[in-house]
Design goal:
CATH class of the largest domain: Alpha Beta
CATH topology of the largest domain: NADH Oxidase
Shape: globular
Number of strands: 8
CATH architecture of the largest domain: 3-Layer(aba) Sandwich
Number of domains: 2
CATH superfamily of the largest domain: NADH Oxidase
Strand content: 15-25%
Structural class: alpha+beta
Number of helices: 13
Strand order of the largest sheet: 1-2-4-3
Bound molecules: flavin mononucleotide
Largest sheet: 4 strands, antiparallel
Radius of gyration: 19 Å
């Protein structure tokens, strides 16, 4: 999508504000607002332009849940959501990170409009939801999100033991120093993290990204001319490879900050082009190498003021 600079700036600022909303006021969102959110998804910037994705609105959440058998709980209980949006992709190499990259733009767009959302990966019947959205053979339901106006301090919070058990560190994030290395794995990136450059701000935005069970699987290596993105493959995979979707979400945050600074990010994604990097950077075997972003002098200049309006980190998600 040809986002305007104003839209890019609104979405980037929404990065600091977005939280998973699991409790809603219930009242419907105007149809034209929902259409705008869907359009943001459909026309979002892709990582892999050749991979078809689509976003389907379940306008009546109750009917959607009923048809689905009422078991759409996720690991946190979703209360009072008036609508859901289902994200569908063709299944091919790169589809998870591509969907993370694209759907997060839609989520940030919705956040900028004041709407609540919550990435939902698992714990629903992919088959039943697939049936409801008319899934083609080569397609997969990748994720879904409730959409609605957030309830102020809803009652879900205390009730939700499943969420507590499943996301022990909910809302919190690892410090940037543990996520970013310089030149090589495990080498502190201190010198790159001391000033509010475009690069540091992009990494801070990536750090604020939501992730499956808040696992924060991404690690970044800054080389002389590239920012390399890796993501930790879990020993045991529950459901789809969400760790790759998480990488795509973090990459969308990096791209948005870059675009705010007038830099057009040109991600290097072809495995063949990336393969040579692994040994030199000492990337551990259980980390997948997802992409590299060429860096030039502009990344080391001060970040634009508009992007630096960072809201305080939330201690917990809003339910
Ligand atoms: C790919 C993905 C799948 C997720 N799946 C669920 C889910 O099924 N149920 C749920 O309650 N939250 C889900 N979440 C939300 C995360 O738990 C949440 O993003 C994380 O705990 C960080 O909190 P925050 O989003 O409030 O910053 C998911 C997030 C991502 C990125």
């Amino acid at each position: 999508m040809a986002w305007s600079l104003e839209q890019i700036s609104l979405m980037t600022r929404a990065i600091w504000r977005r939280v998973s909303v699991r409790s809603y006021r219930g009242e419907p969102v105007p149809a034209e607002t929902l259409a705008e959110v869907l359009r943001a998804g459909e026309e979002s910037i892709p990582l892999w332009p050749h991979i078809p994705v689509r976003f389907v609105l379940a306008a009546d959440a109750d009917a959607f849940l009923r048809e689905h058998g009422g078991t759409l709980l996720g690991y946190g209980r979703i209360l009072g959501a008036p609508h859901f949006i289902v994200a569908i992709s063709e299944v091919t190499a790169g589809y998870m990170e591509n969907m993370g990259f694209r759907m997060e733009q839609m989520i940030l767009y919705a956040t900028a409009l004041g709407l609540g959302t919550c990435w939902m990966g698992g714990f629903y019947s992919r088959q039943k939801v697939g049936h409801l959205v008319g899934l083609a053979e080569d397609e997969q339901v990748v994720a879904l999100t409730p959409v609605g106006w957030p309830a102020a301090g809803g009652p879900g919070r205390l009730l939700d033991k499943t969420l507590k058990a499943f996301v022990p560190d909910r809302g919190g994030r690892k410090p940037l120093e543990r996520l970013v290395f310089a030149g090589r794995w495990d080498v502190p990136a201190g010198q790159y993290l001391t000033q509010q450059t475009v690069l540091r701000t992009a990494l801070e935005a990536a750090r604020r990204a939501p992730s499956w069970r808040n696992t924060q699987p991404w690690r970044f290596i800054i080389t002389e001319n590239m920012l390399v993105v890796t993501t930790s493959r879990p020993a045991e995979q529950i459901g789809l490879p969400y760790y790759r979707l998480d990488a795509g979400i973090a990459m969308s945050h990096i791209s948005l900050v870059a675009l705010c600074a007038g830099i057009e990010p040109a991600w290097v994604l072809e495995p063949a082009e990336l393969a040579g990097l692994r040994a030199g950077l000492a990337i551990p075997e259980h980390y997948d190498l997802i992409g590299g972003l060429p860096l030039d002098a502009r990344w080391h200049t001060p970040a634009p003021a508009a992007v630096l309006i960072q809201e305080p980190e939330h201690a917990t998600s809003r339910h």
